[in-house]
Structure formats: C-alpha cells, structure tokens
Amino acid sequence: MSLLGGGIVKGMAVTLRNFVGSYFNKERLVTNDYAWRPKEDAELPQSAGQYPKEEGEQLSDTTTVTNYSRNFPMLLHDGKEGDTPMDTVRCVACQICERECPP
Questions:
Q1: What pLDDT, in 10s, does the model give residues 1-58?
Q2: 10-19 b/e with 16+ CB inside 10 Å = b?
Q3: CA 2 to CA 80: how far, in whole Å?
Q4: I want to staple 64 with a disulfide (CB 3.0 to 4.6 A). Which of 16, 46, 54, 91 is the partner?
Q5: 85: CB partners within 8 A, 6+ apart
C-alpha cells in the first residue's frame, strides 16, 4: 500500500536534506558572496564569460563553459514575413540573458 503523495514527500525530503546540508558542508558554498571564502586552491565552477581579475590582464582566447550552461541564449520570434522583429518577440522572462552575459 502506497501513501498518497509519497513522491512529493520524498522530493521534499531530498530538498530539505540539501538545504540543511548546505549550512554544514562548506565545499558546497561556491560563490564569493558568502561570509565564508573558499580556499585559494579550491576548484570552483567557472562562468561562461570571465572578465580579467586585475587591470591590464588579458582574457584568454578560449572561453570556459560549465557543464550546466546552456551556451547559446537566443530570443525567439514568431511572426509573418515583413513584421518588424520587436512586434514578434516571444520573450518569456526566463533571465537566461542575464545569467549568460556578464555585466
């Protein structure tokens, strides 16, 4: 006999375990926005576009792309021939543009 909504309960248990575990396992904190700073030799995920760390430092020729990156954000258009692109934009406010292109 299975519990009604058992999958939801199992999923919430995984979410709770990850939420609580993130406070006790410092290797899971991967950003510099926290009070805890990662070790200098710690391997952190790289973003798709990286700015030079110091002034005068040059960017490398290749760009590091993470495994979970979508790599190619595109804005879809839906319309007929002759319509202006701004009349046919299908933006769903997914914020991929903000995540993929650094400020």
A1: 467 888 899 999 988 888 887 777 766 655 544 444 555 655 555 544 455 455 555 5
A2: eeeeeeeeee
A3: 52
A4: 46
A5: 77
Please check whether residue 70 lies inside any domain of the structure.
yes
Q: Locate 55 and state its tokens.
A: 């002034």
Q: Say if 94 falls within a structural domain.
A: yes
The amino acid sitting at 34 is: Y
Q: Is 46 within 8 Å of 60 (Cβ atoms)?
A: no
Average pLDDT over residues 53-64: 56
Structure tokens at 98: 């903000």
- Where in the sequence is the domain holding 88, given as residue range(s)? 62-103
Q: Are 79 and 89 in contact (CB under 8 A)?
A: no
